[in-house]
Amino acid sequence: MKFILDWSQNFYEEKIDWRGDEKVMSLEISQRECCFAVAKVFVFSNSSDSSKLLFSKKYAKIGVQLDENIPKVDLLFSGRVVSFPVSFGKSCVQLELIAEPTDFQKQLSEFSQKNIEQYQKTNMHEIQKEFINFDDLFFSQNDLNNPTIFLEGGTNHFYWDMRNGKLSLSDINRGNKTIEISDDQILDNSINISLAREPYKSVNINLSVNWTQHLFGLLDLYPLIASKFKDGIVSSLTNIKNKIKKLCDTFHSDSYKLLRCNIKEVNPSAVISMKTFPMTSNEITINENGDPQKKISAKFKRFYLHGEMLLNWSRKQKREETLVVNVVNGNIVHGREKNIHLKLNPIQLPKQYPNWSFFAEYILGDRILFDGFIWECKKNHFSENKFEEINWKKIDKIPDALADDSSASFFRTIRGRNAIKYALQNAVALINYSSRYVEISFIVDAANFLFINISDQITLIGKRFDGGKIVGKITKTKLIANSDIKLMQISIACTLGNDVFNSTEKINEYLESFWSNGSVDKDADEPTISLENIVKNIEIKNPPEEQIQILSTTSAKTLPELISQLKANSTNIKISLAPLNSAYTVSKIQKLPDFILK
């Protein structure tokens, strides 16, 4: 076995023939997971001039001729010089090379772009069957240049081929190929078994999201007012129509907008059929000028009013929803606990289109948001108190996490369920990685395992292993070679127990189980604002019955005085509405059943 070092013009220079530019005395080539391989090479230098020449070199390739009788040379390592050559005496110069390709940043960028394009093709409003590797709720747009975010929650990490500098992915537990090594191939006294880390027994997830909830609706105050009067119709011995209209003008605020106030005097029998209503008050008798001998009798007209007092109410309320779930590794008895806090980016509803409104003028081509969809107006019309789909064309779903900002729960939406899945996958990935808690290192003859790398896995076979064999993923390799020895030192990480690698199906089953039985957020569909929340109080002062009582006990001595007293005790309506735009945050915590990995 002979090692050859040739200088190159660039990292990707094709080697057609090998010249043997430098005579290799000894070398070490090592590589760890997620790292570029590094080579330390000692080459023969026969003069100071040749040592100086090495300072001008930038790239090199290392090849190996397995059989000196066969001229074939296999490429073993490509890299660039990362240190000044150091001379030892007059014959030996040390070089240090790193297998970092010149375009590694471009490769990472292309990897990110490929994942971004895959994400952009994904329908956010569909349940993702596979692991979601990116969502703008989970990451910010500034993270797009960081390719490692696309691996979060998975079992892969980067692997850089030390021969050609190409980027690929390597599973943390399983290799691209499996290599069997038996006891008799391992050098005596070279095997070492150690505990790399204490595994996680459970990962406790705290997943939270916040948004501004926008609720709106239509409220007719008239029926509520009428319900406070006898027989369910507004009536008085004084004409309060204008007073009610002035009352309507006081309802303008950040929470309320008066859409229509139409109050008119009516025949009550036309409003409430099959019922007879008195059109005047009872006869009121007084002593004229206090003289009991002179009586004045009067009846007063009853005014009956009917109409509508339509208010558009709206509320913007900050909401925070937190979901708590524990992922438990059922494969181990003892282990650590890990707490992870995942805060999703704030949900921002699209602002390019307004919400549909009551009693508004719409023209052809207008676009609005309603019921989770974008709609386009098909014809000019004036909206009433109900959305009429015949006037609109459905364009698309609202491109947002909630789809409807009146939702009371994010985690009941499709993207909310995907967020839970994302969090679970992150927890499983942590447990998965920590389960590689046994590290085994050993040394073998490099002649038999020269081209082994960290994208492979090893099956160790021998009586010293429980069950006769043990499987582990390669985490580190180190080739040591000189004129006397040629050895390969290998480290593997082993999972002692059942694997949890393919967890996507388990997570899907788990999600379906508690959604199908309705155990998640049972109150999410309940209305968040009821009539009682809006109308705090309706007070009627001096209804007709009280007016008659006042006039019956009056001290008036003339008819004008009696009329004045009636006007002084006119029916008055007072309404108290809640200020709906609240500054405090509504918080809600949902605890899911434990997710058990077995």
Shape: elongated
Largest sheet: 7 strands, mixed
* Helical run tally: 10
Residue runs with pLDDT of under 50 for 5 or more positions: none
Number of separate strands: 31
**What is the CA-atom radius of gyration, in angstroms?**
41 Å
Structural class designation: alpha+beta
Helix fraction, binned, reads 10-25%
What do the pLDDT scores average to? 86
* Oligomeric state as shown: single chain
CA-CA gap between termini: 47 Å
- The proportion of residues in beta strands is 35-45%
Question: How would you characterize this protein structure?
Answer:
Helix 6 crosses helix 7. Strands 12, 13, 14, 17, 18, 30 and 31 form a seven-stranded mixed sheet that branches. Strands 1-2-3-7-5-4 form a six-stranded antiparallel barrel. The protein has a three-stranded antiparallel sheet with strand order 20-21-23, with no helix packed on it. The protein starts with a strand and ends with a strand. It has ten helices and 31 strands. By secondary structure, the protein is of the alpha+beta class. Strand 8 and strand 9 form a beta hairpin. It is elongated, with a radius of gyration of 41 Å.
